[in-house]
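ESCALATION

Customer reports they have been waiting on this structure for their group meeting. Please prioritize. Original submission:
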Amino acid sequence: MHTYTVEPLYVPSGDETIAADFYLPKSNIKPAVIIMAHGFAGLRQFKLIQYAQRFAQAGYAVILFDYRYWGGSTGKPRELVSLSSQLDDWKTIVQHASNCKLIDSRRIILWGTSLSGGYALSLATDLKNIQAVMVQVPYVDGAETAKLYPLQRYPEALKRSSQDYMGSKMGLVPKTLPVVDQFKLCFLQTADSYYGYHSIVNPDYYWSGEVPARVFFNLMRYRPIQFVRKINIPVLFIAAKHDSLIPIASSREAATNIAPFVSYHEWEMKHFDIYHGAWFEKAVTTQLEFLHEHIGVM
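Update from on-call: job pushed to the front of the queue and completed.
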């Protein structure tokens, strides 16, 4: 087991700054680096630290970051989910890692969960020096995920999304929707999402639970599955058979399209189970085995 340091990292991105934690094993010369960020509306402290710690103990460097508008990163309006901005933040952090003298810039691994899993798959063919990708319960097809949203809620959700988008053009205060809510209109409307999402929230960090509604329509249109056939590096793909947010058929199709480069695992769990207990242990063990096989520790 490696000892490691954790240092704050601040990376310029346009006029804003991305905040991150940089995990660096002490006994490893130029380690491979795993770049991590959370899924929809998550902060880096929402259960991702436990993964980063285990990777660092195994001898891998980690850059765990918050998107612009979130957590320790700058940008307004706060808690805005912009798919294009978040994809750019991934590219910015990868570029930073590529120029970092403390790590092996030829061995960069993208790690994503849920929405950020979709980002990692989308970026796998665009970025240089990416040696492997690890995704768990990844968001692969917004069009299919949208079919799981309650039909009767659509008109109101699309109206709120449109109002917020138009208001943003006029500099108005954002119209928000809750990430999860047991009774009201929200983004993640499935039965297990309320308790599932709250099970990963870290109460020590500010999180309003509200997101500008404009992203609702863009989430429906975001389809990483369209790009995965181009992937030609090793991919670890962990899916939840009972996922209420990501249709298992979409995960299977995406994995089929990545073949022969994919190592696909489908487990008897729900979307948020992978952050807890035995499922977390199984996930991190599987991810470390994948890393040792395809990356190695120097």
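Sent to customer with the following note: The chain has one domain: 4-142+223-294.
Escalation resolved.
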